[in-house]
Design brief:
Strand content: under 5%
Number of strands: 0
Low-confidence stretches: 35-39, 99-107
Length: 136
């Protein structure tokens, strides 16, 4: 469930949704890399996988379970989500989730100003993702 939670925040930020100038991930105090397509999105799914594994290491250790027993299931779930998103994008350029369909250009019923602001938010989020990945 944690993977889905993080992916949902990634989608919301990628769609340009902001709350008082902050992404939903920032409000939830999550540090996530955001990507919207191709290799960039794949790198972000890898970062989500890494974040979930780091969070679970302590819990697994306290129960005497090696993280190596849990990590493959997390990786499998990340791969499933990534595959599902790729199929959804190929099938018409829409991301499915939460009952809201976002087109690739962030269009829909938004004004050009709103689309420009959303694009700027996505660029900032993408730049933060790239900076965090470069630090690793």
């Amino acid at each position: 469930m944690r993977v889905e939670y993080m992916v949902t925040h990634k989608k919301l930020a990628g769609g340009g949704d902001v709350i008082d100038g902050r992404t939903s991930a920032a409000v939830a105090e999550l540090e996530l890399p955001y990507g919207s397509s191709g290799e960039e999105a794949s790198g972000c799914m890898r970062a989500i996988y890494d974040a979930v594994v780091r969070e679970l290491e302590g819990e697994c250790a306290s129960h005497g379970i090696p993280i190596e027993m849990v990590a493959p299931a997390i990786k499998h779930r990340c791969d499933e989500i990534e595959e599902k998103e790729a199929k959804a994008m190929d099938a018409g350029g829409r991301m499915v989730g939460g009952g809201r369909g976002y087109t690739n250009d962030g269009g829909g019923t938004r004004s050009s100003r709103e689309r420009a602001l959303a694009a700027a938010e996505r660029r900032r989020a993408r730049d933060r993702c790239q900076e965090k990945n470069e630090e690793r």
